[in-house]
Amino acid sequence: MNSSREKLPGNWSSASNNEKGPRFSLFDQEEALLQHADQMVDKLDQVADGVRELANAYRQSYRSQTRLLRMSDRMQLDLQQANQKLEAQAESLRTLNEALEQEVQAREQLADELHRLAMMDDLTGVYSRRQVLEVGERELARRRRQGLTPLTLLMMDLDHFKRINDRFGHAAGDTVLVAFAEVLHRNLRESDAVGRLGGEEFLAVLPEVDLRGGMTLAERIREEVAALRIPWEQQGDGSGSVDLDLTVSIGVAALRSTHESLDTAIMRADDALYQAKLSGRNRVMLAKAEERGNQSDPEV
Ligand SMILES: Nc1nc2c(ncn2[C@@H]2O[C@H](COP(=O)(O)OP(=O)(O)OP(=O)(O)O)[C@@H](O)[C@H]2O)c(=O)[nH]1
């Protein structure tokens, strides 16, 4: 029997041995080992759980990082696109602004041109009717402020102007009007104002000029106009080059007092002009003081 029994190493002996000394139960040992192994397995399980949790956490954080990175890439792209759009909008605003500035400039030029047209007679370069009357009113107001500074008006009308138009055409009439305006420019001073009231009728406002000075000036203008010979090339089957001549009738009136209105003075000058026409044209006539206005302040 003994020979068939295996000899156990160290202190281990068979439970069937009746020898004294420590006895080890294989079962207990196995049990202990198994318990230990179970504990180890539990711990390993716990470690594995921990590792799994860590791995999960790591995976989640990796995913959210990747998501964030993708989002930031997208946002960067969106920002770039938005920036490009803004730059394009800024560019078109700049272009729009330039166009607006050009438009404003063009409108200002147009307004200046309209103002100039309202102020000036385009054909002759003298003031328009509106402007010469405005200057006249301004001068009258200044005269009232400063007392009895003289102011004289010349109302001028070309004689038989219609004949020139009828015989030589409208362009010839225009040339005559320009030539007459040149005579006026030559004879008037910087402080004087002259305007075309309409057709072939002109008004000169002469501040600081008394009746005698006005008469002298009107006479000089009349003489220069009568001496004009304006060369004119006839069109079509006309008889070639001719000299256009003309005369002018002038009515002169000086403001009689600071109370007299410009309109009244103009009417007196106009009446004098009418008298000049009636008396045979090509002459200067003075306004008659007794016809209208202040009887105690005659001017002739
Ligand atoms: N060429 C030209 N003619 C004009 C212009 N404005 C008006 N007229 C003409 O001027 C002429 C004026 O004629 P009337 O009012 O009869 O005056 P007039 O022939 O000068 O006669 P009196 O004033 O009585 O000496 C008309 O035939 C108008 O058509 C213009 O800007 N250019």
From TrEMBL:
A Gene Ontology cellular-component term: plasma membrane
Keyword Coiled coil: yes
Coiled-coil blocks: 72-117
Required cofactor(s): Mg(2+)
Gene Ontology MF terms: diguanylate cyclase activity
EC number: 2.7.7.65
Every GGDEF domain range: 149-289
CDD domains recorded: GGDEF (cd01949)
Pfam families according to UniProt: GGDEF
SUPFAM superfamilies in UniProt: Nucleotide cyclase (SSF55073)
Keyword Hydrolase part of the UniProt annotation: no
InterPro entries, per the entry: Diguanylate_Cyclase, GGDEF_dom, Nucleotide_cyclase, Rev_trsase/Diguanyl_cyclase
NCBIfam families: GGDEF (TIGR00254)
Name recorded for this polypeptide: diguanylate cyclase
Species name: Alkalispirillum mobile
